[in-house]
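Now for a sample.
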Amino acid sequence: MRGIKVLAMVMMLAVGMQAFAQNNTKRADKADRPTKEEIMKKRWQALAGRMMLTDKQTEQLEDTYCDYIKDLAQLKAEKRSDRKEAKKDMAGKKEKGKWQPTDEQVAEMTMSGFDMQRKRIDIKEKYFKEFSKVLSARQANYLLKHDNIKPGHKKGMKRMAKKA
């Protein structure tokens, strides 16, 4: 009787292992993912729907909005690469304990932060003017404030509903 139970357990284990061995869906999932362009267009469609824009306004501003998001992403990538370089510099100079930056390094990091903020403001100003050609100033401001909302992102959608 005990031998039958052990045999049954081994059979169940073997069947379970075969079932997991054939689960190879990760490769298929990567191929089915939408491109960045498609994601941006979906974001724009969701945002345009929330703003209740007309079809004409939606079509006119779709490319402009995509360019705006690309510019912000490029700025974010620059900031990320600057941080990586700074971390590499810090890692080489770090000794025992915490690394203490010099006053010159702190000033340099602060100034680079200001430069990034200026670039972001310049991008927003440029696209505010573009959006204002088609939309009211209030709608254009709304677009600039809500540049990071993802379609289907529940927390973002709830936050948007509360603010609107």
Remarks:
- Residues 90 and 99 are 7 Å apart (CA to CA).
- The chain has a mean pLDDT of 81.
- Residues 55-93 form the longest helix (39 residues).
